[in-house]
Amino acid sequence: MKTTAEFQLPAREVYGKWSLPMVEIFETVEGEGMSQGFPTVFVRSFHCNLRCKWCDTPYSFAPAKPAFEATIDEIVRKVARYSSRRICFTGGEPLIHRQKSAALIQALARLDHIVDVHIETNGAIDLGPFARMREKDPLLMKKMRFVMDYKLAASGETKKMIRDNFDSLLDQDEIKFVIGSDEDFDQAKTVIERFHKKGQVLFSPVWASMPPKRLVEKVLVEPLPQVKVSLQLHKIIWDPNERGV
Questions:
Q1: pTM of the model
Q2: Rounded alpha-carbon distances, angstroms, from residue 82 to 112, 144, 151, 231
Q3: What is the percentage of the chain residues whose pLDDT exceeds 90?
């Protein structure tokens, strides 16, 4: 649901004690998108407002349970132990915790060694309040990025997409379309033509129904010269079902 609410965060001494349900925190290389291949700390929170048919992290929402609860200060301390300079805040849906999500983003961005905090959000959470928080803070403008996963027909959740979210995106952001069929491809093309303003567009294949070779061929034939085809590197390096990689 779209809202115009603003986040009013208390002092760090207060919000640092707020706790979130968590799935895992680990270090690996980023598997997709513009940061693909860079060593990255993944901060995966629990809960999601969507139930995509091809979801590859069903352990991040009900009926599964959170692996643990952690305060914002505890999460930041754990992230600070790693040498990676990039953070992927993901889920589930990492922005579903609203004010707590905003507070965690702020705290992570204030780690001196961190140069990038990218947020994998599902397109069904209003980005407006988070975008306005970013606009008001030079440090967040420098480090914070959205990776908005716009859900298409094959996901079963396309009706829940908030198209006004495109107004909140900047050049540093990304819009990911997971392509599972020819219908998905055509829908993504239409969405780009009608709503895309800023941000790098990514097309990622559902391998079982849209082989990468076919997706590349469709992008070239269309043509879509500004689209980046993004494969999930971690599923090539490791078993697709392996966690914590």
A1: 0.93
A2: 13, 19, 32, 25
A3: 84
